[in-house]
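Input:
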Amino acid sequence: GQQVMQIPQYQHVQEGEDFTTYCNSSTTLSNIQWYKQRPGGHPVFLIQLVKSGEVKKQKRLTFQFGEAKKNSSLHITATQTTDVGTYFCAGRDRGSTLGRLYFGRGTQLTVWP
Amino acid sequence: DADVTQTPRNRITKTGKRIMLECSQTKGHDRMYWYRQDPGLGLRLIYYSFDVKDINKGEISDGYSVSRQAQAKFSLSLESAIPNQTALYFCATTAGGTDTQYFGPGTRLTVL
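Output:
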């Protein structure tokens, strides 16, 4: 079955440093989504990437989708304490039903001042 | 998302008890999901429903059952709770034609 692997599991950075989390799928994806879960909260949708090689930016966050549509990354430039939380990627396999996503295990980001 | 509500928010129960977790949504979405979150394991799909008459097993359905009482309501039951079902449970919804999931606030379940 489809698997979505995400690394690293944990990342501790000092405020101002950059952060990257990576997602890899065992199969070709139709799209990939990224979610953020604040401590004590629930996952919240950030963005969806659909096209091969797509790059999208949201302020200090840069999202990339690989050319083969099997990997993705989220990069945060100059982290702030408000970036603390767990970041999940979620992909839909090319052959899967719309709405059936497979989540990575998440990367828990800690930012100290 | 305030349009997706879960009850109860916290529950402590004993091994062998029957437990029902409820989810309601006012988003008008057809598709509803139940996920389980454990530390380091991410979100694992238990069951999902694409409409009232369509129920599908996810990755970890053993020990769980669901009921889709209406388009807006999707309940998860643990017929006989066991300690390794202690986890954070999330309900989610999506609109037809999209993959974007909207999560409820979660139910923290502890089975002693």
